[in-house]
């Protein structure tokens, strides 16, 4: 695609990349810089490969945008629960067990594979590649709302909201015990364990991380349903923070309480039989992203989405309640 633009008076002596970002909102500034440095931009008919070049009013800038390259992951027809979709973005309700990105051990069958099939030709490309822009991740076994961009403009706008914390993400989790106070803020920096990169820890030298929680429902003294809102979005943040205050998420294979402690807790609560068996065998962390709020990157309108807890967590709650 080739586009010719005349620089208006208002952008006199503006950097070339900044001027083009202003005039072409569907392209991110990083993508524009990539095109400039790749020789795809001409000013007055001459190639200009310096992003900091100052344009003048009346300059005619020609921009060539190559077709987005095919994404390397294969498109796969994997069912998705789409909560909302337009030409710029999707909101999906991710099931537990679905990996987000292809990686070692998960080359296919991922959310990205599913999105490539679902979106087909509606992806205009992120950074020049025809792929979905994953704005924020959920762990494989965490379910709930996820936001996906279809183009550079949407990806840049949504990523900026994530970075400046104007995007709101709300989760619900079933945890062991009842946090006290019932409403609080966990402010504890997180870093990877130096001996195990898959394991996050509260460490003084870690990146700042804060989680606001509120107890929605108590199930006796042995468990409760909590709502968590993220101020930051670190890997495993809610799971690590809840474990840090001694109220680990039920079913969490990394940060949960030992099987002997689960057995003791259920016995003390008087839970046995089928219910106790279901709780002890719960196969994943009982954590679900229930709400998402952000400003639409094109229209500026506030968008808000909510979903119910999935059936497995509802069943867990029914079993974990006192008889």
Short account of what is shown:
The protein has helices at residues 16-23, 29-37, 111-119, 152-163, 237-244, 259-269, 273-280, 311-320, and strands at 2-6, 41-43, 46-47, 60-64, 69-70, 82-85, 89-94, 129-130, 133-134, 143-149, 168-176, 183-187, 190-193, 196-202, 210-219, 223-230, 287-295, 302-306.
Task: Please supply descriptive tags for the structure shown above.
323 residues, Structural Genomics Hypothetical 15.5 Kd Protein In mrcA-pckA Intergenic Region, Chain A, Pseudouridine synthase, 3 domains, ten-stranded mixed beta sheet, four-stranded antiparallel beta sheet, 29% strand
CATH top level assignment of the largest domain: Alpha Beta
Strand content: 25-35%
How far apart are the termini? Answer: 66 Å
CATH architecture of the largest domain: 2-Layer Sandwich
Average pLDDT figure: 88
| Whole-angstrom Rg | 24 Å
Order of helices and strands: EHHEEEEEEHEEEHEEEEEEHHHEEH
- The CATH superfamily of the largest domain appears as Pseudouridine synthase
Protein structure class: alpha+beta
Describe the protein:
With 323 residues, this protein is an alpha+beta fold. It has 3 domains: 2-64, RNA-binding S4 domain (Structural Genomics Hypothetical 15.5 Kd Protein In mrcA-pckA Intergenic Region, Chain A), CATH 3.10.290.10; 69-164, Pseudouridine synthase; 170-290 and 312-320, Pseudouridine synthase. 23% of the residues lie in helices and 29% in strands. The strands form 4 sheets. Strands 6, 7, 9, 10, 11, 12, 15, 16, 17 and 18 form a 10-stranded mixed sheet that branches. Strands 1-4-2-3 form a 4-stranded antiparallel sheet. A two-stranded parallel sheet has the order 5-8. A hairpin with an 8-residue loop joins strand 9 (133-134) and strand 10. Helix 1 (16-23) crosses helix 2 (29-37) and helix 7 packs across helix 8 (311-320). The relative contact order is 0.12. The model has no long low-confidence stretch (mean pLDDT 88).
């Amino acid at each position: 695609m080739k586009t010719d633009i005349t620089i208006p008076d208002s952008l006199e002596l503006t950097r070339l990349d900044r001027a083009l970002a202003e005039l072409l909102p569907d392209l991110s500034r990083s993508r524009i810089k990539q095109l400039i440095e790749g020789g795809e931009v001409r000013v007055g008919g001459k190639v200009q490969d310096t992003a900091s070049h100052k344009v003048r009013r009346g300059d005619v800038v020609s921009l060539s945008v190559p077709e987005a390259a095919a994404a390397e992951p294969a498109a796969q027809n994997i069912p998705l629960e789409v909560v909302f979709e337009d030409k710029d973005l999707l909101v999906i309700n991710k099931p537990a067990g679905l990996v987000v990105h292809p990686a070692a051990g998960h080359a296919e069958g991922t959310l990205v594979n599913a999105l490539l099939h679902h979106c087909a030709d509606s992806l205009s490309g992120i950074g020049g590649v025809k792929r979905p822009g994953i704005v924020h991740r959920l762990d494989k076994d965490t379910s709930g709302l996820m936001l996906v961009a279809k183009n550079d403009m949407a990806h840049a706008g949504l990523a900026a909201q994530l970075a400046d914390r104007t995007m709101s993400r709300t989760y619900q989790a079933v945890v062991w015990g009842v946090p006290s106070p019932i409403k609080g803020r966990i402010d504890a920096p997180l870093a990877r364990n130096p001996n195990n990169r898959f394991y996050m820890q509260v460490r003084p030298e870690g990146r700042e991380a804060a989680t606001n929680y509120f107890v929605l429902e108590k199930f006796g003294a042995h468990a409760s349903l909590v709502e968590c809102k993220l101020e930051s979005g670190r890997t495993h943040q809610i799971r690590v923070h809840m474990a840090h205050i001694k109220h680990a998420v039920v079913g969490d294979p990394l940060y949960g309480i030992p099987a002997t402690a689960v057995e003791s807790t259920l016995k003390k609560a008087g839970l046995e039989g089928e219910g106790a068996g279901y709780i002890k065998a719960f196969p994943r962390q009982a954590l679900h992203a229930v709400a998402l709020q952000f400003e639409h990157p094109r229209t500026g309108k506030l968008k808000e989405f909510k979903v119910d807890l999935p059936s497995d967590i509802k069943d867990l709650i029914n079993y974990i309640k006192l008889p």
